[in-house]
Specification:
Length: 447
């Protein structure tokens, strides 16, 4: 007979959630991933966020079948004493298994090829309009076309960060650097760091960076308590400046989104120039350098400063459509405070996301974000299959009485604006003890 199994309780497991002492449970087996945190392809943050819990649902969501073979070297010899599986998780894991057997995670279709061709066409048209035409209107239109190219590069960067869009890992990395760093000026390392945190802690006010836009926007009055961002590792102060800006956020939302790209540039450089560990930092910086050579050079080819400014504004504003799309899927959905809990993984993913109705011929415009619930449950699934599995996800949600929110693009905008307006009205409540400044007093003297 073999040695009897050794068990620890969930309470004991929960104590192992600090740097250098990270334990997780997968299907009831306890693994020590402390030394793996620095090498984890998804970064250290997902492990820190979920350490001390059973993470089976999150693991099957993010990892292919061949990842299981690497777990044994982290096994502690302990098992989770009070391990149990909810009915929701059973059906979710069964669905993951069925999609895997159908090979849907590996079948990527021709979406990547068409997207790359479309990007090449848009880039060529924009450059041609600048270099070969003299009409100011064509120059402005060329800026808009460049913005559309950036949107498509964003979808490509998003997809390549979630799964391997090319034949090999090397080509996949090339596609990431090309579409993200070189063509769009956005570090793919920063995007993966940020986006992994978002998926793991979907709609947690203090863990999800996609909801942390102080002092410009808040989606909940809970931000008025100056929450601490566990992603940026700083306090999000709700001071007089934040109150003033938030009070009018429903009016400034779309104008700010037109120039939100500036923040992505700044965040990219902030990460690459920081002391934080960044995989292949040299490649990242070289790719960013390429962008900051060709884009200013192209702008400088325009005949005067007015047309140069209009070109930049047009390109940034059109790309603002994508920034709005990112917000629509989550701003009006359910939020919470605190770390993510793996015990309700499926529930949190469905309640924190919003699908957007659109015809199949408009899928190129939304880049997969129109099936946000499906994408959050199956982040490794190529976007060409999201529409196909949508009925299965609806059935899963219906069976277990989970929210499946799906509205039109217009309605999603309305819901987002209502959320922003609601928080803005609450921010104007002068009964909250937030210090006032002269600008606040001047604007609100007459209500």
């Amino acid at each position: 007979m073999g040695e009897p199994r050794k068990y620890i309780s969930q309470q004991e497991l929960s104590k192992h959630n600090k740097r250098g002492d990270l334990w997780i449970s997968i299907q009831g087996k306890i693994y020590n991933v402390s030394d793996w945190a620095d090498e984890h392809p998804g970064g250290e943050l997902p492990l820190f966020s979920l350490a001390g819990q059973d993470v089976t649902d999150a693991f099957v969501s993010y990892h292919p079948g061949n990842a299981w073979q690497y777990l044994d070297k982290f096994f502690t010899g302990y098992y989770l004493q009070d391990y149990s599986v909810s009915e929701v998780s059973k059906d979710y894991r069964k669905l993951v298994s069925e999609l895997s057997k159908l090979g849907l995670f590996e079948k990527k279709g021709h979406c990547v090829f068409f997207t790359l061709c479309f990007m090449a066409l848009l880039f060529s048209l924009s450059v041609y309009g600048v270099l070969c035409c003299t009409s100011p209107w064509v120059h402005v239109a060329s800026g808009g076309i460049m913005g559309f190219m950036w949107i498509q590069s964003g979808w490509m960067g998003h997809d390549s960060g979630h799964y391997q869009v090319m034949a090999t890992r090397g080509f996949n990395r090339f596609a990431q650097i090309l579409c993200g760093n070189c063509l769009a000026g956005i570090s793919i390392a920063w995007w993966k760091w940020n986006h992994n945190a978002h998926h793991i802690a979907c709609n947690s006010l203090n863990y999800d960076p996609d909801l942390q836009h102080m002092p410009f926007f808040v989606v909940s009055s809970k931000f008025f308590n100056s929450l601490r961002s566990c992603f940026y590792e700083r306090e999000m102060k709700f001071d007089s400046v934040a109150r003033f800006l938030v009070s009018y956020q429903h009016l400034t939302f779309y104008p700010v989104m037109c120039f939100a790209r500036i923040n992505l540039f700044a965040q990219s450089f902030a990460l690459l120039l920081s002391k934080r560990k960044v995989p292949q930092r040299g490649q990242e910086l070289l790719g960013m350098l390429v962008f900051w050579i060709w884009y200013p050079l192209l702008v400088s080819c325009l005949p005067n400063w007015v047309e140069r400014i209009l070109f930049v504004v047009a390109s940034f504003s059109v790309t603002g459509i994508q920034h709005v799309q990112f917000c629509l899927n989550h701003f009006s959905s359910s939020v919470f405070v605190g770390p993510p809990s793996s015990n309700d993984w499926v529930e949190k993913q469905t309640s924190g996301t919003l699908d957007v109705k659109c015809p199949a011929w408009m899928d190129w415009f939304h880049g997969g974000l129109q099936f946000q619930v499906e994408h959050h449950l199956f982040p490794r699934l190529p976007r060409c299959h999201l529409r196909k599995i949508s009925p299965l996800v609806k059935e899963l949600c219906k069976t277990h009485n989970l929210p499946y929110n799906c509205v039109s693009f217009w309605k999603a905008n309305v819901l987002t604006c209502k959320t922003l307006y609601s928080a803005a009205v609450q921010a104007r409540d002068l009964s909250n003890p937030i210090p006032k400044n002269l600008v606040w007093e001047a604007v609100n003297t007459h209500g």
